[in-house]
Amino acid sequence: MITFTTNFGDIKIQLFADKAPETAANFLQYAREGFYNNTIFHRVIDGFMIQGGGMESGMQEKPTKAPIKNEANNGISNKVGTLAMARTMDPHSASSQFFINVANNTFLDFRAESMDGWGYCVFGEVVEGMDVVEKIKNVKTGNHGMHQDVPVEEVIITETKVEEKVEE
């Protein structure tokens, strides 16, 4: 379980380590290292998704680890409340950035192992704090340099807490 404390409230996330092992491990490593602390949700599109995990205040991009393999062929759909990895046109380019779906975005699902068919890997879901996600998706957005859909008032992840499961 991972909790993002934001200036809008807390978002609690459960990872699908069984369905997207490499992706969940990658995200967990970034979370454990505190990488997401003081990053912003830099792209917000109501009716689509809220994206974060790679930019600091003022749209400064953070350096990341090497990209990971796309595990979108895991059978999990980009439904409301799920987390998926953001990437470039290259299907295997995801590193730290993720998005939370605020609509059923099934057009982002895996279709084939091809450039346009890979889709976006769902690796977790919001288990508490969808009200916070709803608040974030409704913020006023504008342009910042070449970036569009940037919140006018920054939405900041101030702290990341990782709750480790204790096996008895």
UniProtKB/TrEMBL annotation:
Segments forming domain PPIase cyclophilin-type: 1-162
Broad EC category: isomerase
Molecular function GO labels: peptidyl-prolyl cis-trans isomerase activity
Family: Belongs to the cyclophilin-type PPIase family.
Protein known as: Peptidyl-prolyl cis-trans isomerase
E.C. code: 5.2.1.8
PANTHER family: PEPTIDYL-PROLYL CIS-TRANS ISOMERASE CYP38, CHLOROPLASTIC
Isomerase keyword on record: yes
Keyword terms, alphabetized: Isomerase, Rotamase
Organism: Catenovulum sediminis
InterPro entries: Cyclophilin-like_dom_sf, Cyclophilin-type_PPIase, Cyclophilin-type_PPIase_CS, Cyclophilin-type_PPIase_dom, E_coli_cyclophilin_A-like
Enzymatic reactions: [protein]-peptidylproline (omega=180) = [protein]-peptidylproline (omega=0)
Role of this protein: PPIases accelerate the folding of proteins. It catalyzes the cis-trans isomerization of proline imidic peptide bonds in oligopeptides.
SUPFAM superfamilies from the UniProt entry: Cyclophilin-like
A Pfam family of this chain: Pro_isomerase
